[in-house]
Amino acid sequence: MMAQLVLSQQACPFDTEKIHGDSSELSDQTFTIDDLDPATREAFPKLKAFNKVQLAVAKTVIQTDSSIVVNAPTGSGKTVILELAMAKLARQAKDSPFRILYLAPTRSLCAEKFQDWKVRFAALGISCIQFDGDNAVEDVTKLSNHRLILSTPEKWEVFTRHWDDQNVASVLRPIRLFLIDEIQVINDSERGSNLELVVSRMKYIDSRLRRDNPYGSGVPESIRFIAVSACIPNVNDFAQWLKNDRNVVPFSFDETNRTTKIERHVLNFPCASNPFKFELNLNYKLPAIIDQFSSQKPTLVFLGPMLNELADNLANRNLQECVTKGVGYHHAGLLHNDRIQIENHFRAGHIAVLCFNV
What we know:
The protein has 358 residues and is an alpha/beta fold. 42% of the residues lie in helices and 14% in strands. It has 13 helices and ten strands. It has helices at residues 16-20, 23-26, 38-41, 52-63, 78-93, 107-120, 153-160, 166-172, 192-212, 235-242, 275-293, 305-324, 336-347; strands spanning 67-71, 99-103, 128-131, 148-151, 175-181, 224-229, 248-252, 299-303, 327-330, 353-357. α4 runs parallel beside α5 (78-93) and α7 runs parallel beside α9. The longest helix has 21 residues, at 192-212.
């Protein structure tokens, strides 16, 4: 059954019909994973069928060249939408040069996608490289040897400052697909400005490079944007911002489209006069709360900023001791190898509780 689209109720400052183009008609038709060509289908070995969100968006991804903004709940399969766009470009470009840029707010997210995509998309000719600070790329020309670059806004902002350099331009010119994960980070007071700057700069660079050196291939020239988030109510505003020569199609889905339903339990505790003491007292209450609601399954704990500071001070000394008790924590300050080990053991079920900062 097709998911019902719930578009933002805010006034749209541009012509919605023009932005949606023909995709509004496409969304009324059933599009299943079996409609993918065999080569693309092989890149999704574990995916048996599209869920409601993917059903609603997949046809626009595969059968149009429109840019897309998707607001959908966490766990609703938004990553598959990004992957379909990559596969579509690889099949469309064939032997023509192209490049894909994936931007995520954290290095750990880039590393997770890199480990997955370098295997699954190799058959489609998409070679991957991490360019986010964890992996030193001293010679930027090495980026030209790969079809997919995974980076963070901060790293890409520094790299694109010198976009008029010949070596940097050779990396930027073939970029035809720009994937933005967790685009709501633009509202972050510290990191948001970098993301906004990078996207605006990429639009400008793209128009300049295409004007000075027309791109001679069968692939549409301007960059296609695919942006996803779990918490942006104003998808139409983002669609207007990302618009270039392509149409932009906004999708928004409410909580009823969440694949795994969430139970919400709100607990209250008396507030201490000292905020730090209050945060510390919550630590002692946490084990009982986990036992009560986790059903013996792995648990994610989102820490407040004050506890983050305490964890940062203890990380290097106590991580190993914590892991031996089935508890781990994960943040960008950990060594790259430590983060990978924590991620792998949590997926394997060896770590019962994983704490990380947001």
